[in-house]
Structure formats: C-alpha cells, structure tokens
Amino acid sequence: MPESSSQLVRIDPFRLRMKRCGQMVTDATIFASEAVNLEPDAVRQLCDAASLPPAKKVLATADIHVGFGIPIGAVLGLDNAIMPPAVGYDINCGMRLLRTPFSRGDIDTDKIAVDIARDIPLGEGRENLQLNKTGI
C-alpha cells in the first residue's frame, strides 16, 4: 500500500498513476493536476479499492477525499459485482458527467459557478433550508 504520494507517477498534467503493488489487482488512476492536494489517507483507500478481487478499473476524480472505506470521488469498474460503499452513502450527492453539444467558449463557467453557489446548498448540511409540510 502506498505510504505517500511519492508512490504515484504523473503520466500527464492531469493524471497520476498508482502502479499495481502489494495486494492490488489493478493499477489506479487519479485525475488531478499538480495544484490538487491529495489526502494521503484517500490515496491509501484508493489502493485498498484496487485490491478488491472484482476490481477491473479503479479511477479517482480530482475531488478525491477520505470516505467510508473507499474514497469519495473514486470510480470502480467491477466484474459482476455491486459494492454499496463504492456508490456512496450520500448517493446522488451531485456529481455528474455528461456530454453536451457545447464547445469550451460557448459557456460562461464563472457565471454558472456563481449561480450554482447561490442556488444549491453546498457541503454537508450547509445552508439547507428547513421546510414544514406546507413548504414541501
């Protein structure tokens, strides 16, 4: 199991590779630039996830952080298995990836970020509204 980020090899400006070692059954890839501060415990959890026998592909998004056994932000490709901790206990927490017909210059990402921060509660329990039955 990697004890530090020195076990990771940068393969391009936005990806790191953790080569199969120890009990890992597959490599793991982390999508993160050099500006992303990776939590060592989250990297260890990713190594643990890559050590699970049904694991075929193990990835981590740039927001990887310590979870409940498997890091939040991890994506596991499993062979004939579903693993609830890999889905997450905060299922539907808001992470999505979709393909659009838009090009990079078509969208004002700064405006969208401001709109999201204004309209959507961000973080665990942060600024969530209390509703009574008539408000639901």
Q: SS-based structural class?
A: alpha+beta
State the share of residues found in helices, binned by percent.
10-25%
Average pLDDT: 80
Low-confidence parts, pLDDT < 50 over ≥5 residues? Answer: none
* Order of neighbouring strands in the sheet with most strands: 1-2-3-4-5
Question: What is the number of helical segments per DSSP (H or I, 4+ residues)?
Answer: 3
Alpha carbon gyration radius: 18 Å
In N-to-C order, the SSE pattern is: EEEHEEHH
> How many E-type strands?
5
Task: Give the overall shape, derived from the CA principal axes.
Answer: globular
**What does the largest sheet look like?**
5 strands, mixed
Determine the strand fraction and express it as a percent band.
15-25%
- How far apart the termini lie comes to 47 Å
3D architecture notes:
This protein has 136 residues and is an alpha+beta fold. The protein has a domain at 5-91. It contains three helices and five strands, in the order E-E-E-H-E-E-H-H. It has helices spanning 40-49, 84-87, 109-119, and strands spanning 9-12, 15-18, 28-31, 55-65, 72-78. The mean pLDDT is 80. Helix content is 18%, strand content 22%. It has a five-stranded mixed sheet with strand order 1-2-3-4-5. InterPro entries: RtcB, RtcB-like_sf. One of its GO terms (biological process) is RNA processing. Pfam families: RtcB.
